[in-house]
Design goal:
The radius of gyration is 13 Å and the shape is globular. The chain has no helices and 11 strands. A hairpin with a 4-residue loop joins strand 7 and strand 8. By secondary structure, the chain is mainly beta. Helices cover about 0% and strands about 55% of the residues. The N and C termini lie far apart (about 40 Å).
Amino acid sequence: QVQLVESGGGLVQAGGSLRLSCAASGRTFSSGVMGWFRQAPGKEREFVAGIRGSSGDRNYADSVKGRFTISSDNAKNTVFLQMNSLKLEDTAVYYCAAGLGYAYSVWGQGTRVTVSS
């Protein structure tokens, strides 16, 4: 059974940092894509960042460029999201996602990030 398990969420003050982790089990995604999405209260889920396992190519939503960094450890089938200079509007449930091709087909349960003033 393929499973993604996120960790690292929590409460942080604006301007602070958090690091999210996502460990995949049941399948390797080193040749596919892994990424992060988020859903804020009352809003639709949106893309945050993604990374291709084979090339290491990364892409980010404009709202997080320069503040968030996605990285992966292919050997451990794990993806990370380093979030710096957090803003109130970054408050959301963050979901890890993965796929063997270019589409995300497997989702984690989510980890909550709350940024306070």
